[in-house]
Design a protein that fits this description.
The complex is a heterodimer of chains A (260) and B (119). Chain A is mainly beta and 260 residues long. Chain A has one helix and 18 strands. The radius of gyration of chain A is 21 Å and the shape is globular. Chain A starts with 16 loop residues before the first strand and ends with a strand. In chain B, strands 1, 2, 5, 6, 7, 8 and 9 form a seven-stranded mixed beta sheet that branches. In chain B, strands 3-4 form a two-stranded antiparallel sheet. Helices cover 11% and strands 45% of the residues of chain B. Chain B has 119 residues and is mainly beta. Classes of the chains: A mainly beta (260), B mainly beta (119).
């Protein structure tokens, strides 16, 4: 599937980003103020309005080429939420969406740096490194920033993984946010993000987050993930304004509907 | 029962916030101009319009998650009135749509209305 292009900065969008999330509920309201409701979970859609300013010639050409390629609203493409955490179930590391190696024990309910109890204790009782990974069907050639908070009872190494890229860090007794920014293999169909815990070690982890941009923003709990396959442009017209030499501006609307 | 999320400051709302009370009365008007009124419901229903500015990404995501997990106006939740601390156990969001605007880093904005339900 085609993928919405990243800008030259490695970001998907610029500020401001407007996001509409619309759901559908059928409501029968009685005269006394009571009501009967019927949900329609498949009837929802999300729309992003992306304003771009100061694009250079290459960036506007890339956007225009992509728009032409998908023929406006005709063809779907993969879009990642520019404001969201692309990972799903980030506070449920025991969910099936996470693939944990067999000798890695994950225990929830650990105090986290934001004052809650959503951190996890990851203990590797084996004699080899063990991983916990989530694989996304996201554009593999994007630049991603994978971040996670970690701490340990004593200085302990851990490795952040983004596709084939890896970087070693040391967790200490205080919560530290570690970030790995890397691009995946452009020829792959998916990208894996995760942590590797060395043999006979244990760390507390909290807030794994993936964003399609070069740096991490504040942690956002990931629930359903932020990769939308089958998104489309809202309009059949792509208009941009050239404001100066090598400077262009445009606004595009992208929507994603479950039922399309 | 779900609970409406609070901000990092533990507040539910920011200024300006609006609060309303709504009755469901009926009035019959006769040809001579006289009217007869009667109560159409057991009592008033409350609503609160909550406008949130300068939210960080975590707070914005929490509000949006709450909206999604409630399926818009379908789900009911418990809401604590920020004016007087009274707990209203049967509330919902008024609309099936939420707009979030990220104007910059840690500068998110959104607005929603919570309504009290009957029955």
């Amino acid at each position: 599937m085609k993928v919405f292009p990243q800008l030259g900065t490695g970001a998907i969008s610029q500020f401001p980003v407007v996001k509409h999330r619309r759901l559908r509920t059928v409501v029968n309201r009685a005269a006394d103020g009571s009501s009967i409701k019927l949900a329609d979970p498949a009837g929802g859609y999300i729309e992003w309005v992306l304003e771009f300013r100061g694009l250079d010639d290459t960036e506007i050409a890339t956007l225009q080429e992509f728009y032409t390629d998908v023929e406006g609203e005709l063809t779907g493409f993969t879009f990642v939420d520019p404001n969201g955490n692309l990972l799903a179930r980030t506070e449920e590391l025991n969910d099936v969406i996470w693939q944990a190696d067999p000798l890695l024990t994950l225990t929830g309910g650990v105090a986290d740096p934001s004052g809650g109890t959503s951190a996890w204790h990851a203990a590797n009782s084996g004699q080899a490194p063990q991983c916990v990974i989530q694989t996304l069907n996201a554009p593999a050639g994007y630049i991603y920033s994978f971040s996670v908070y970690a701490k340990a009872a004593e200085a302990t190494g851990l490795t952040l993984l983004v596709a084939g890229q890896r970087t070693a860090r040391t967790a200490t007794t205080g919560w530290t946010r570690f970030v790995l920014t890397a691009a995946g293999d452009p020829t792959a169909n998916s990208v894996a993000f995760g942590l590797e815990i060395p043999a006979s070690s244990a760390v507390d982890v909290f807030g794994p987050q993936v964003e399609a941009q070069p740096a991490a923003s504040a942690y956002k709990r990931g629930v359903a993930g932020g990769v939308y396959e089958g998104a489309r442009f809202r309009d059949n017209e792509f208009m941009y304004t050239t404001t100066d030499v090598n400077r262009h501006a445009t606004t595009v609307s992208i929507f994603y509907a479950d039922h399309l | 029962m779900a609970i409406f999320p609070t901000l990092k400051t533990k507040a539910v709302a920011q200024y300006p916030a609006s609060r309303a009370i709504r009755f469901e009365h009926q009035a019959l008007r006769f040809v001579d101009g006289a009217e007869q009124r009667y109560r159409g419901s057991a009592g008033p229903l409350h609503s609160w319009t909550i406008r949130l500015n300068e939210l960080d990404e975590t707070e914005m995501a929490a509000i949006e998650d709450f909206f999604a997990s409630n399926q818009g106006r379908f789900g009911n939740f418990l809401f604590v009135d920020p004016w007087d601390g009274h707990t209203y156990p049967n509330c919902s969001i008024s609309k099936d749509e939420i707009e979030t605007i990220a104007s910059g880093e840690m500068r998110g904005k959104t607005s929603l209305t919570v309504i009290e339900n009957r029955g």
